[in-house]
Amino acid sequence: MTICAPADCSTMIDVRAGVDQVDRELVALLARRFGYMDAAARIKPERSAVRDEARKAQVIAQARAAAVPLRVPDTLVADMWERLVEASIAYELAAFDRRQAMP
């Protein structure tokens, strides 16, 4: 099935196919992002370095700013990134702990 641009969708089948494709792409991007969390857990020398509130604020602000010219609700993006960053921190902490437990 060919995926059409949103403006070219004429049926709900078109819309759903497009949404499903975007969801697959988002999951692939999340896998890539979490790969960077694995790298951070490998690189950071101490567990206490995992949580960085200044960096968290910067990441959320950057996402929010990127949303504005794309006409995506920036407050919604900020809320989503808050959850994403917290999930990333939890993932990185677990990855750090796994690395420390290795002989």
How does this model look, in words?
This protein is mainly alpha-helical and 103 residues long. The protein contains 3 helices and no strands. It is elongated.
Number of helices: 3
Largest sheet: none
What is the share of helical residues?
Answer: over 70%
Average residue-wise pLDDT? 96
Could you say what the CATH topology is called?
Chorismate Mutase Domain, subunit A
Structural class: mainly alpha
Instruction: Report how far apart the termini are.
Output: 49 Å
- CATH C-level class is Mainly Alpha
| Overall form | elongated
* Overall number of structural domains: 1
User: Rg, please?
Assistant: 18 Å
Low-confidence stretches: none
Provide the β-strand percentage band: under 5%
What is the N-to-C succession of helices and strands? HHH
CATH architecture: Up-down Bundle
- CATH superfamily (homologous) name: Chorismate mutase
* Total E-strand runs: 0
